[in-house]
């Protein structure tokens, strides 16, 4: 298969995937320092969220608080970690 950018070297391979929205997360990343940026990023997708920015902020922060509480941090983002064998 030809490469779209043929002069950029070999294809990149990752060793780990972090899956969000899973029912059985096994990794929580501390997002306390970036929670405001996360809220702003979600709000930037205006066509995909409600017109009530306060509701969006509350929902994003509530989910992050719940994930963080599981591991003793203020705000977290939960993932399922999948290690890939190459």
Automatic annotation (TrEMBL):
Phylogenetic lineage: unclassified sequences, metagenomes, ecological metagenomes
InterPro entries with a match to the protein in the record: LmbE-like_dom_sf (IPR024078)
Protein name: Unannotated protein
Gene3D superfamilies: LmbE-like
């Amino acid at each position: 298969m030809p490469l779209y950018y043929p002069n950029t070297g070999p294809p990149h391979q990752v060793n780990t995937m972090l899956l969000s929205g899973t029912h059985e997360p096994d990794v929580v990343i501390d997002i306390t320092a970036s929670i405001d940026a996360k809220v702003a990023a979600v709000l930037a997708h205006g066509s995909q969220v409600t017109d009530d920015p306060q509701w969006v902020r509350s929902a994003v922060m509530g989910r992050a608080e719940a994930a963080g509480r599981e591991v003793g941090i203020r705000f977290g983002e939960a993932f399922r970690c999948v290690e890939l064998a190459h």
